[in-house]
From TrEMBL:
One of its GO terms (molecular function) is transmembrane transporter activity. This is High-affinity branched-chain amino acid transport system permease protein LivH. GO terms for cellular component: plasma membrane. The chain crosses the membrane at residues 15-35, 42-64, 98-123, 190-216, 237-258, 270-295, 307-328.
């Protein structure tokens, strides 16, 4: 039983990333009808927002410490972060330590801007084009974006640690009634799961309980009728594209301590997340979230030693096998709507 709980926990943090990226993909498809293969790149850009802010906050200058000497007896040169010089050693060190959570504030306007530029500068010209054209152009955009990141940040992963208070592991098994030291789990992975739940709840709450969200949902169901009523639905859909970009970016920001950012991480998650969207049902927001968590947990169980020993390589193909089974039995996905992608 303890092994089962551990694998469920392992699946939830990866499933959280799948669910957030798939949620953004579905928002864009549901509002604009665009199959956005550049959405994984938005996840990557969010991760590098955290890297950028961490580097900015860690920027330092050289000072001479007369109280310390090197082996030749000369005063030592000391790297002093600007944050510590401006705010004091304790506060400055705390600001640097909390770079990843602070990156949320940095990433939101950046991702909204990136989403707006992407939609107004490119995507809007492909609204009425075939889905194949949309896939090709957005996939090309994703490649361009990852090469830009590679040029400025290099090809190697960049470790970006979580705040010190969230490093290490906790005895999660005790909270579930197990014996001590049975289920030890990294604290930040739990933080990421709870963060994902809060973002998902915020998106659904925004769409369900605000006037803006209600108009967007009406536009998703019948765009022409909403336009006849005099509502500028295109403007609202552009804002939703920005929100979808921000959701993917925030998923990337908080994932950096789990998986050090690299220039191809967007592609790594995009294909899997698109499979998640298809399994959940194209255009279905609840389906995207449900499928994200379910497939994350299945992938976790498929990565265990006994599963790989039984079927070598099963951890690499389990998501695709599930997608095949679901689409053969339910062509619209788990919660897909009639008529979506069926023309």
């Amino acid at each position: 039983m303890d092994a089962i709980f551990l694998q469920i926990l392992n699946g939830l943090d990866k499933g959280s990333a799948y669910a957030l990226i798939a949620l953004g993909l579905t928002l864009i498809f549901g509002t604009l009808g665009v199959v956005n293969f550049a959405h994984g790149a938005l996840f990557m850009i969010g991760a590098f927002c955290a890297v950028t802010l961490s580097r900015i906050l860690s920027a330092s200058f050289i000072t001479i410490d007369e109280t310390r000497t090197d082996f030749l007896g000369n005063p030592m040169e000391v790297q002093t972060p600007y944050a510590e010089a401006w705010f004091g050693p304790e506060i400055g060190a705390s600001i640097i330590d909390w770079a990843v959570p602070l990156s949320i504030l940095f990433a939101i306007p950046v991702m909204l801007l990136v989403g707006f530029i992407m939609e107004r500068g490119l995507i809007k010209y492909f609204y009425k084009r075939p889905h194949a054209d949309q896939i090709l152009v957005t996939f090309g955009l994703a490649i361009v974006l990852q090469e830009v990141i590679k040029y400025f940040y290099g090809a190697n992963p960049i470790p970006t640690p979580a705040p010190e208070v969230f490093r290490g592991s906790m005895d999660f098994g005790v909270m579930l009634g197990f014996d001590p030291n049975v289920i030890i789990y990294p604290i930040w992975r739990l933080v990421y799961f709870l963060f994902s739940l809060s973002i998902i709840a915020a998106v659904f709450g925004f769409l369900q309980f605000t006037t803006f969200g209600m108009v967007v949902r009406a536009g998703m169901a019948d765009r022409e009728t909403v336009g006849i009523l005099g509502i500028d639905i295109d403007k609202r859909f552009t804002i939703m594209f920005g929100i979808a970009a921000a959701v993917a970016g925030l998923a990337g920001v908080m994932y950096t301590p789990i998986n050090p950012p690299n220039y191809h991480m967007g592609m790594d998650f995009l294909v899997l997340s698109f499979v998640v969207v298809v399994v959940g049902g194209m255009g279905s927001l609840p389906g995207a979230v449900l499928a994200g968590f379910l497939l994350g947990i299945l992938e976790s169980f498929a990565s265990t030693t006994w599963a790989i020993g039984l079927v070598p390589g099963i951890n690499q193909i389990i998501i695709y096998l599930v997608a095949i089974v679901v689409l053969l039995t339910r062509p619209r996905g788990l919660l897909g709507r009639k008529g979506v992608m069926e023309e």
